[in-house]
Amino acid sequence: MKISYRRTGGFAGMILSYDIDVDNLPPEEANELETLVSEADFFTLPAEINAETPGADQFQYTLTIETDQAQHTVECGDAAMPENLQPLVNKIRILSRSTPNQ
């Protein structure tokens, strides 16, 4: 599984991009990511998730996940992010700070 993560916006307008090849991660990390993708029902989420009321200085996320069977991209902002997607985004954010791009 390959994951592409991009965060834009915020007060400073910074862009953060991070790519993960799950096969290159330690087994514990790989299993956790696969579980979080499954728990998020990622492949059933709509391609765009918009908040009812847009807000200023929010982060916008683009997350693409590719497996042997499928590829799917989801775009959303902080205010629109479904609860089931938050743990996956948080884990990727942590990995982006501690692991080099793969």
Describe the protein's architecture and organization:
This protein has helices at 27-39, 86-98; strands at residues 2-9, 16-21, 48-49, 59-66, 71-77. A five-stranded mixed beta sheet has the order 2-1-4-5-3, covered by helices on one side. The protein has two helices and five strands, in the order E-E-H-E-E-E-H. It is of the alpha+beta class and 102 residues long. It is 25% helix and 30% strand. Strand 4 (59-66) and strand 5 form a beta hairpin. The relative contact order is 0.26.
Strands side by side in the biggest sheet: 2-1-4-5-3
Unreliable stretches: none
Mean pLDDT: 89
Which percent range describes the beta-strand content? Answer: 25-35%
- The level of helicity is 25-40%
What does the largest sheet look like? 5 strands, mixed
How many angstroms does the end-to-end distance come to?
12 Å
Overall 3D form: globular
Q: What's the tally of helices?
A: 2
Evaluate the radius of gyration: 13 Å
Which class best fits the helix and strand makeup?
alpha+beta
The count of DSSP E runs of length 2 or more, i.e. the number of strands, is: 5
